[in-house]
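Hi there,

I know you've been waiting on this one. I reran it after we fixed the sequence typo, so this is the corrected version. Both the input and the resulting structure follow.
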Amino acid sequence: IKERIARGERARRYDWWEIDQVKNVSEEKTQHPCQIPTEVMLRILKITNCQLVIDPFAGSGTTLVAAKQMGIRSIGIERNPKYCSIAANRCASEFAGLATGAESHS
């Protein structure tokens, strides 16, 4: 970051934390096109004292996975059926016995 600023460039948002982006070769990569790293959500959740996380755009399920890893209850909502399936499958593989509620509501 210091080098970018010294060159007169702005720091990119993802430069502030040294966390690799989720790429096609990442172990945690799903089929969601805009997946964020679980570590980002873990760091965000660590600075809160929340007991319940509601993610109205569950996408790839990253927030739900991070919450579960920290012992925080979570609710994921996703309008897009494809992304809902991605999140539900990811959560089911991360923690067995999850009630997904992934049924379609038109």
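Quick highlight: The chain is about 35% helix and 10% strand.

Best,
R. S.
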